[in-house]
Design goal:
With about 190 residues, this protein is α+β, with helices and mostly antiparallel strands. It contains 6 helices and 7 strands. Strands 1, 2, 3, 4, 5, 6 and 7 form a 7-stranded antiparallel β-sheet that branches.
């Protein structure tokens, strides 16, 4: 993952480009990180080629809403509907969402862990005109953390005398290990 100062630079570039009336798409097309924009209703209106490479698909203008990914999951492996993703939260609350991590599943079944940076955009009258999102791939970092969690669950499963607790912990370890395998194979 790029250093925080570089990430902030990418985000600042995206926000500056979107606030100007010039050719903002040309500026965002040059960014090496996935960036996309939505309208005030969450409809995806723009994406750069880095988004296509990250998501493993070409978003569909007029069809995709909230996100450019095919499917989303939480770090626990639960399905995350697009209308509950960080970009949807940003549009609904009109505030930037930070500190989240999600798993994007591509149409080919591969997965990528990412940190989104959805940021609302306002016009001169403070009306919401949409949002921009930058997706930072954190698969390597998250695979390590999930592998550690799987190992902890395995140790706990072996150390407990309660058969039901051992079964639940073993299932959790298996789930974490499966997510790690999916992230590392992508």
């Amino acid at each position: 993952m790029p250093p925080a100062s570089e990430l902030q630079g990418y985000l600042d570039t995206a926000l500056a480009a979107l606030s100007e009336e010039g050719d903002w798409k040309a500026v965002l097309d040059k960014l090496a990180v996935p960036v996309y924009a939505t309208d005030a209703a969450g409809g995806v209106t723009y994406w750069n080629q880095a988004c296509v490479a990250f998501a493993g698909r070409e978003p569909q203008l007029g069809e995709d809403r909230w996100c450019v990914t095919w499917q989303l999951y939480t770090m626990d492996g639960d399905f995350l509907p697009h209308d509950q993703c960080p970009m949807a939260d940003t549009i609904k609350t009109r505030t930037a969402v930070r500190g989240k991590v999600a798993i994007a599943m591509r149409p080919d079944g591969t997965r990528r862990a990412f940190t989104p940076y959805p940021t609302p955009l306002f016009d001169a009258d403070d009306a919401l005109k949409g949002a921009v999102n930058m997706l930072i791939d954190v698969s390597d970092q998250q695979a390590g953390a999930l592998a550690d969690q799987a190992a902890r669950c395995k140790r706990l499963a072996r150390s407990t005398t309660d058969p039901r607790a051992a079964e639940v912990l073993a299932d959790m370890a298996q789930g974490y290990a499966a997510t790690v395998a999916a992230l590392r194979s992508s």
